């Protein structure tokens, strides 16, 4: 193992020497930032009715001012900043790095609110790697240095990003404005990504099989052979240098069989979560505020494709957020979920890169209102997971029978899986008879629009084949088994669960008291009033007000509920003049959860 590692290191050094001998030296980042030669000055437009924003600079520590001072002076000398007088102003926040140096950060949230939104055409990091085939085994990763600074900002737009600065040397206060596309502006990634993509269209790769992927300013070369990877890397570096871009030599990973790209560890035919990313998340202490918990969930959400049952694991954590309190009140379930999520993250498996030349298999089921799925492809006698899918059902679907919730889950999982399959055939394994449930019972719960949508996804697509099986766990699915025919009868289960109570009669009981119920809701002088009453033909048994937001229909139901509560242990008939109480019983019965799906 040690000898193999030494050979790999020696090979990397030799490849690095070959590349450096052939590359234009100006491509490597230095103190002087690049300038994209074909880029026109970027114009920023305000939203209709947008007004200048003025956010005062908050106090800064002396050490922070002294730390960021040399950076600002250097930017002024390089023409990245200039002095100005502007009716805009937003604060800066010097950020200290682990090595003791500083980063200049500007709080542009106020500017982002008043400037026009651009549709983000940035690649989806989840599906970007679907373009890589298993035959591509050599990789190079290039990171552009200070990428946004390569694009000039139109003179008329520069004052929008002004900030206040007091020189630590002279004590002179002034306003400074960016002459280049600033970091922190909401549209900067989209604007830069489009410009770089436009420039890369004119790059002609050398002969050999390979792929070039771009995510904003991060580039990945993937080729079949080591020699091709060297040639492509040299060609792309020279192209970028001549176009005015600069590449970080420190961050470059050139001609390797395993690289870190977008936080993923990419190798031949598979991707895993980078160890640094996993450790950073798992070292996060238990959040104490809603903001801290949202940050933690945002970090884990990036890794959700690697975590089976992710939606179930985070459900107790999202319940903490919905309580409405700023400071979190941790429950046993939430604490358990927090620890389980970290454990699942550290044991996250490697996922196969989607191979769109081979068919896919999708295992789909629903649990606690969450659509869960595993997208996989055959690897020898087994199946290798490509992605673990997890998404909540909407509020309406959560109230459906279990078999119909399974239909909704399949529709959601198929839509998510198509982001990876790109039209390749997909066999979907489910434990419910999808078409029969949809056709026979869908009309009772689904709107016409939703019914047609599900029908189009499940029935009318050539790339989807539904297979009903008794497989109910991911281990059996990934073992390659197709399972046995399912014995669960969806239609029978729904019929038994949601039929009206057999003991409910539409004729009065003999030798029983007869009670009458009613509820009403009306508006007087702009204020709604609601109430209910339970009576006999001679006296009022009980009456009372209801909350002001109660509708007339709900008031009638509340009256009936109260009558049933008062009649406990008695023999009585409850009636009202409008409608039939049997409808209410039919609606309430499913709350007993009789279905076994």
Automatic annotation (TrEMBL):
A molecular function (GO) term: RNA-DNA hybrid ribonuclease activity
EC identifiers of the protein: 3.1.26.4
Enzyme class: hydrolase
Residues of the RNase H type-1 domain: 509-597
GO biological process: DNA metabolic process
Domain called Reverse transcriptase: residue spans: 76-266
Homology family: Belongs to the beta type-B retroviral polymerase family. HERV class-II K(HML-2) pol subfamily.
Protein name: ribonuclease H
Organism: Hirundo rustica rustica
High-level lineage: Eukaryota, Metazoa, Chordata, Craniata, Vertebrata
């Amino acid at each position: 193992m040690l000898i193999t590692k030494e050979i790999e290191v020696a090979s990397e050094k030799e490849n690095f020497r070959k590349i450096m001998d052939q590359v234009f030296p100006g491509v490597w980042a230095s103190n002087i930032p690049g300038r994209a030669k074909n880029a026109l000055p970027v114009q920023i437009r305000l939203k209709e009715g947008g007004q200048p924003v003025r956010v005062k600079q908050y106090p800064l520590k002396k050490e922070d001012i002294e730390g960021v001072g040399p950076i600002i002076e250097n930017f002024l000398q390089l023409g990245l900043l200039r002095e100005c007088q502007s009716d805009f102003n937003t604060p800066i926040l010097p950020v200290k790095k682990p090595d003791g140096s500083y980063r200049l950060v500007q709080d542009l949230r106020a500017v982002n609110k008043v400037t026009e939104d651009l549709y983000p055409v940035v690649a989806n990091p989840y599906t970007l790697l679907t373009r890589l085939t298993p035959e591509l085994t050599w990789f190079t990763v290039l990171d552009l240095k200070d990428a946004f600074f390569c694009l000039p900002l139109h003179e008329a737009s520069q004052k929008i990003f002004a900030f206040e600065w007091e020189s630590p040397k002279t004590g002179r206060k002034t306003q400074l404005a960016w002459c280049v596309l600033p970091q922190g502006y909401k549209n900067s990634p989209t604007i830069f990504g489009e410009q770089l993509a436009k420039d890369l269209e004119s790059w002609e790769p050398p002969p050999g099989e390979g792929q070039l992927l771009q995510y904003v300013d991060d580039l990945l070369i993937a080729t079949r052979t080591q020699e091709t990877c060297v040639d492509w890397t040299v060609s792309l570096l020279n192209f970028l240098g001549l176009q005015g871009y600069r590449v970080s030599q420190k961050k470059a990973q050139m001609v390797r069989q395993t690289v870190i790209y977008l936080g993923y560890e990419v190798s031949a035919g598979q991707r895993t979560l980078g160890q640094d990313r996993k450790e950073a998340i798992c070292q996060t202490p238990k959040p104490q505020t809603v903001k801290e918990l949202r940050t933690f969930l945002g970090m884990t959400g990036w890794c959700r494709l690697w975590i089976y049952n992710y939606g179930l694991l985070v459900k107790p954590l999202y319940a903490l957020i919905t309580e409405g309190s700023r400071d979190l009140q941790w429950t046993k379930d939430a604490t358990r979920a927090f620890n389980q999520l970290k454990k699942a993250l550290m044991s996250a498996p490697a996922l196969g890169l989607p191979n769109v030349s081979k068919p896919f298999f999708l295992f789909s089921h629903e649990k606690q209102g969450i659509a869960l799925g595993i997208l996989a492809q055959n690897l020898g006698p087994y199946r290798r997971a490509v992605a673990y899918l997890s998404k909540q059902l909407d509020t309406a679907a959560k109230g459906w029978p279990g078999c119909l919730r399974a239909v909704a889950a399949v529709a959601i999982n198929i839509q998510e899986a198509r982001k990876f399959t790109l039209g390749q055939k997909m066999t979907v394994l489910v434990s419910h008879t999808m078409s029969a449930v949809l056709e026979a019972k869908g009309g009772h719960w689904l709107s016409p629009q939703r019914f047609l949508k599900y029908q189009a996804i499940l029935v009318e697509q050539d790339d989807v084949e539904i297979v009903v099986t008794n497989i109910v766990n991911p281990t059996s699915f990934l073992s390659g088994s197709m399972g046995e025919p399912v014995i669960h009868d969806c239609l029978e289960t729904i019929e038994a669960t949601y039929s009206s109570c057999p003991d409910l009669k539409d004729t009065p009981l003999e030798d029983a008291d007869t009670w009458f119920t009613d509820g009403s809701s009306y508006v007087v002088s702009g204020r709604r009033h609601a109430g209910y009453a339970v009576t006999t033909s001679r006296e009022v048994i009980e009456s009372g007000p209801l909350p002001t937001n109660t509708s007339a229909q709900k008031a009638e139901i509340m009256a009936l509920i109260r009558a049933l509560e008062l009649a406990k242990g008695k023999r009585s008939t409850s009636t009202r003049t409008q409608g039939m109480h049997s409808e209410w019983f039919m609606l309430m019965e499913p709350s007993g959860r009789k279905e076994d799906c």
